[in-house]
Amino acid sequence: HALQVLLIFAKEDNQSDGFWWACDRAGYRCNIARTRESALECFLDKHQEIIVIDHRNSRYFDAEDICRSIRATKPSEHTVILAVVPRISADQEETSVLPLLNAGFNRQFMENSSITACYNELVQIEHGEVRSQFKLRACNAVFTALDHCQEAIEITSEDHVIQYVNPAFERMMGYHKRELIGKELTELPKSDKNCADLLDTINTFIKKGKEWQGVYYARRKSGDSIQQHVKITPVTGQGGKIRHFVSLKRLHCTNENNKQVLYRVPCSDVQRLQYFPLLFESHSFRCKNRRKDSTDIKSITSQSSDAPSLQTRRYSSMARIHSMTIEAPITKVINIINAAQENSPITVAEALDRVLEILRTTELYSPQLGTKDEDPHTSDLVGGLMTDGLRRLSGNEYVFSKKMNLSHSHLSVPNTISDVPPCITQLLDHEESWDFNIFELEAVTNKRPLVYLGLKVFGRFGVSEFLNCSEATLRAWLQLIEANYHSSNSYHNSTHAADVLHATAFFLGKERVKGSLDHLDEVAALIAATIHDVDHPGRTNSFLCNAGSELAVLYNDTAVLESHHTALAFQLTTKDSKCNIFKNIDRNHYRTLRQAIIDMVLATEMTKHFEHVNKFVNSINKPMASEETSSHSEGSDCECTANVKNFPDNQTLIKRMMIKCADVANPCRPLELCIEWAGRISEEYFAQTDEEKRQGLPVVMPVFDRNTCSIPKSQISFIDYFITDMFDAWDAFAHLPVLMQHLANNYKHWKTLDELKCKSLRLPSEN
């Protein structure tokens, strides 16, 4: 059929005329839309293959918004969208194309009203992207062919992870495809009727890129063993490497004289498999998050006659996958559920099916956004805080401008806690209160609150005595750590570290927390709170990964900052004996303490937020509630905390939850402190967005644009999605009525501002 093109231009001009006549010359059908609404309506009606959007002037409409709206529809999956951008003068620098790509455009076209130039652009798109999209759309036909194929077909990755099975395979083996997709072959029950060398034989063949066919026993879901005739074809792809294995299976029968009859695979069905490279390019089979390269078909129909001689080969890796006895706990759980399904009523079996489907997902602890998915504030917070960034899209690199600060002699601190100036002493007299004002301490200490608060808190918890270090060493260490926080950051500076230390100390003072932890746990928690953001650059993990920073490369884009904070803190501590607070404790104590500190700091990384919270609820809250109910609240506190102490894993969960809550406790502080913290974190996110735009990097949190951001909305989203459930769980354990009251009041405050359409707060720099 004739190619269809949609032109979206608010006003008719030479450029829109150029594309119109270019379409006429090329024989394309062309429609023109003047508004966002009419454009969307026209596209949903006609499903044009090419869309051209005027991106030269934002006065009439937002081209990127129109593009995103179209991309949000299902039909746009195979549509090419072109942005017409203004021509630049010779002395102007060309802008990055990344913002356009992020908005959903495929290409940009520099303003040129020449009909020939427009014609050439459209024809190139047709012969490039559009034809590729036509091929991808043909995949539906391939799936239809596979669904009606009589042979059972199973496709696995090169790692033997099942990526596709057809209905004939489901009928033969008794499984539903959702029970198989994403599973490794090692996870499926094995038949014990195969000879020991058979799987080694198969493995040897297919690893060399040769086709294998023969008789094989498989175990159905019911437990019965069936004899199959199997043909396995390796599929090579990019670089000549094997990327997939295609298995065709038919039941193996015997004739009346007990002679084996092998079913010949019809040529037509083999030929259908030649579409598989196309199939795998267009459908993202996410098995263990490995990106699969495209495949070619040169080995699909390769033949081999060496099968009989290979029965004598050594039993090796592939052979062992069907005889392994070591099972992961999740595999055992799934097997138990599968067994329970066999004799269960249909309603129970269906419910267990849903359970199995959930258990087989990789994100067991991350909730679905549901209706919140439409809220850009929530989406941006989740994307910005719970991912380690997109793939690197730029050659730009972000390098820390601040070098490690190993010097601490230039800072003036008291010789002992008794030497603290009176104004600071008076403030610190109230540090055990939750409503303690950390910003007042920041002001009177000239932005060095961590040293003073640290000396007071560490003294109260006997940290020097536990570590067997002098107060002078502890003081030098606190000074060194604080010197390596960036005072230029509006949020992630030593005041934030002091605030988290204060919250941690407050939590450690609660009876149930105190009764659940040992002295070593308390010391580890206070140290972890002190160092948890040291040398923070004021940018998120996503930013560092997108920018290809040295730290992101060093830590493989995984928990980049949290790994850096702990590594640097220990490096700084052990580098100089004058600051080494660990120098006098024995090796075993040090290893235990170090592991606890690392574990807590890594727990502040947000990608595992829901995992930590759910584990705490299931392992601490629920058992404790059951014990309290069964004992009718008589002596329950003692019994519950004693039980927690008997399980080190539970102590770990409590420490993780404690530092997580301390790290993001801002919404639970008194309103004036909550507002100040909200302004500071927003300013830091604004600065990141500004830099992402300057460097042409993906903008990971677009709502944090200083010109348009609604701070109340961002706070509401953060509280709804991250804070409420976590602090409900922590309050149920630690009993924190003051915090929960502040949280309710602050949430009401943000809601009121939002309803009044207040778009921003006055930031600290404006006061």
From TrEMBL:
Its cofactor is a divalent metal cation. Transmembrane segments: none annotated. Its EC number is 3.1.4.-. The active site is at 492 (proton donor). Belongs to the cyclic nucleotide phosphodiesterase family. PDE8 subfamily. It catalyses: 3',5'-cyclic AMP + H2O = AMP + H(+). Binds 2 divalent metal cations per subunit. Site 1 may preferentially bind zinc ions, while site 2 has a preference for magnesium and/or manganese ions. Keywords: cAMP, Hydrolase, Metal-binding, Phosphoprotein. This is Phosphodiesterase. It comes from the Eukaryota. GO terms for biological process: cAMP catabolic process; signal transduction. Pathway: Purine metabolism; 3',5'-cyclic AMP degradation; AMP from 3',5'-cyclic AMP: step 1/1. It comes from Nipponia nippon. Residues 416-757 form the PDEase domain. Residues 145-188 form the PAS domain. GO terms for molecular function: 3',5'-cyclic-AMP phosphodiesterase activity; metal ion binding. AMP binds at residues 492-496, 533, 663, 715. Zn(2+) 2 binds at residue 533. Zn(2+) 1 binds at residues 496, 532-533, 663. Hydrolyzes the second messenger cAMP, which is a key regulator of many important physiological processes. May be involved in specific signaling in the thyroid gland.
